[in-house]
Design brief:
By secondary structure, the protein is an alpha/beta fold. Helix content is 42%, strand content 16%. The strands form three sheets. The protein has a six-stranded parallel β-sheet with strand order 1-11-8-7-5-6, sandwiched between helices. Helix 6 packs across helix 11. The structure holds NADP nicotinamide-adenine-dinucleotide phosphate.
Amino acid sequence: MAKLLEGKEVADKIKQELKASVPGLKNPPVLASILVGDNPSAVAYVKTQAKTAASLGIVYKLHQFPTISEEQLIDFVLKLNDDPSVNGIILQVPLPKEIDYMTVCEFILPHKDIEGMHPTNIGKVLFGRARIAACTANAVIELLNSTGVDLYGKEVVVVGHSEIVGKPLAMLLLEKFATVTICHIATSQAGKLKEHVQRAEILIVAVGHPGLIKGEWVRPGAIVVDVGMNHVENDRIVGDVEFDAAKERAAYITPVPGGVGPITVAILMRNLVEAAKEQQS
Ligand code: NAP
């Protein structure tokens, strides 16, 4: 039976460190959050961010737009860039279809991009010089570190190759000399997902498809990190891995919710505090 790999402990440790360092800054850090529309996942994430920020002495300024054009949104980002009181900017996703995330993200000043999604920050991850790495990818690394596992030479399979999670995570894992396989839609379509998952000493899944990974595919003794967050019937949130069956085989497994999510928010705040320190010095 697997040990539960809960994010709370890791997140609490990061937050304790922030609580100690925020009062030492010249001014409380200011996070500008942009929300377009009312997507329920984005609204829920904004609430969590605001609550976490308040608990850490961080000023959370929510800028909410029921609708806005891409051009207008870029203009707004430029204003936030020019505002010296704003230390970090976060663009909530998903955005409406007519707005391209990366197009807007490229206008955020790299040192105010606390999500680590600006091409400059992504490029630094590639060169092993990450100043700010994508929050969720970084959260997975923190969670793996908390198990004490040595990633050197480990067979790691990442399912999902999004710019936000899978791709930056693969880079961070390579940095630690893991042997990384990235699976995606074509892996599934080729009928090869199961064979890759079965070899994984460490399995990380970030797809958004409940039950995609069958419990019986999990290698005995594996570490399973389920990033997926899927809203299903009866207001439940589940991951991408069949939890009950997988926990019988894995050594460690994340609960959903309660695994990666809490750490992602803590890392977002840590990135903000680091950005504020840099800007205020
Ligand atoms: P995304 O941008 O939609 O990416 C999903 C990835 O899964 C894509 O690379 C996609 O490949 C791949 N995929 C789709 N169907 C597949 C299949 N049948 N087999 C294998 N791969 C498949 O999503 P995301 O933003 O990375 O998020 C993924 C999940 O993580 C979501 O449930 C999201 O809610 C969750 N999430 C959680 C956190 C957290 O902090 N806990 C943070 C971010 C995201 P193609 O693009 O080639 O189709």
